[in-house]
Design brief:
The structure is a single chain. By secondary structure, this protein is an alpha/beta fold. The chain is built from eleven helices and ten strands. It has helices spanning 3-13, 27-36, 43-54, 70-73, 83-89, 120-130, 156-176, 194-214, 241-255, 272-286, 300-310, and strands spanning 19-23, 63-68, 93-97, 102-104, 112-114, 134-141, 179-186, 223-224, 262-264, 293-295. Strands 1-2-3-6-7-8-9-10 form an eight-stranded parallel sheet. Strand 7, helix 8 (194-214) and strand 8 (223-224) form a beta-alpha-beta unit. Helix 7 packs across helix 8 (194-214).
Length: 320
């Protein structure tokens, strides 16, 4: 592990008010989005769409890193140029999603554990040889039930298991020389209040950093990709933009070490407009006293409008 290289890569990813482009949807997820718009669910359609994204004019002025999926990192533009080359030439650092998805957790009804640690060291070496300089692993926590009842979720077992997996992944990344994006996501699905989201997010972040310390992960060489602290999607009392900004940053200040290189907030299913409003409020209120750069690694929040415009048609590429 070259600590200085890790730190410099992380700093580049968080520099100049840029953000990350998350184009790492799995094939099934991408196909579902295509199906809603009547776009063919084929490898060629996925390739064409991702070419549209990475060839956006002046993309490198706003995006510092792009997170790819395994299929995407092996694909090429229509003229035969590898995506890896096109992204790098745009001044964007190449990243790769390396987990294999969240699966049902044995013995924990309604909860999930992210898999993919088996063979990860070899996969990371392969991706590094292909030009990747950072990676991403997502762990998801669901809020459910009354927090005062024994059967409410998340359980302590689920939080511990996902936190340990994130830390082991991060250690393997740094061993290979890749900056790990650590993504502990508390899902916004549910009826929970913003206060309940704060409570669970705080516990999850605290546990994640305990495990990162135990696994000897260099905090200056990671990027945190957390959820914002939000009301549940179906909660009757939706928090205001300013309430979300205050709750989110206060939760981070209490639980995230200042040594972390940067914080890139996931949109988590929010609309592009709302996710941007929340991030804007966070920076307006807290940028001057935040120890970290606060930016975005949006996926759908950046792409959905472009996808709606594209419709799978070559004639719509420029507009999209």
């Amino acid at each position: 592990m070259n600590s200085q290289d890790l730190i410099e890569t992380a700093k580049f990813l968080m520099a100049d008010s840029k953000g990350l482009l998350a184009m790492d949807e799995s094939n099934p997820t991408c196909n579902k989005r295509f199906a809603k718009l009547g776009i063919p669910q084929t490898e060629e359609a996925r390739r064409a769409y991702r070419e549209l994204l990475i060839t956006t004019p002046n993309l490198g002025e706003y995006i510092s890193g792009a997170i790819l999926y395994d299929e995407t990192i092996h694909q090429q533009k229509q003229d035969g140029t590898p995506f890896v080359k096109a992204i790098t030439e745009a001044g964007i650092i190449l990243g790769i999603k390396v987990d294999t998805g969240a699966k049902e957790m044995a013995g924990h009804s309604g909860e999930k554990i992210t898999e993919g640690l088996d063979g990860l060291r070899d996969h990371l070496k392969e991706y590094a040889q292909m030009g990747a300089r950072f990676a991403k692993w997502r762990a998801v926590i669901t809020i459910g039930g009354d927090s005062q009842r024994e059967n409410s979720i998340p359980s302590r077992g689920c939080i511990e298991a996902n936190s340990q997996a994130l830390a082991r992944y991060a250690a393997l990344c740094q061993e290979i020389g890749l900056v790990p994006i650590v993504e502990p996501e508390v899902l916004m699905d549910g009826e929970h209040t913003i206060e309940r989201c704060y409570e669970v997010t705080e516990e999850f972040l605290h546990t994640v950093f305990n495990h990162l310390y135990t696994q000897k992960v260099l905090l200056e060489g990671i990027i945190l990709k957390p959820n914002m602290v939000l009301s549940g999607l179906t909660c009757s009392a939706q928090a205001s933009v300013d309430q979300v900004a205050n709750a989110t940053v206060n939760c981070l200040l209490r639980n995230v070490p200042a040594a972390v290189s940067g914080v890139a907030f996931l949109s988590g299913g929010q609309s592009g407009e709302l996710a941007s409003a929340h991030l804007n409020a966070i920076n307006l209120s807290f940028k001057s006293r935040s120890p970290w750069t606060l930016t975005f690694p949006f996926g759908r929040a950046l792409q959905q409008t472009a996808l709606d415009l594209w419709q799978g048609k070559e004639a719509n590429v420029s507009k999209a």
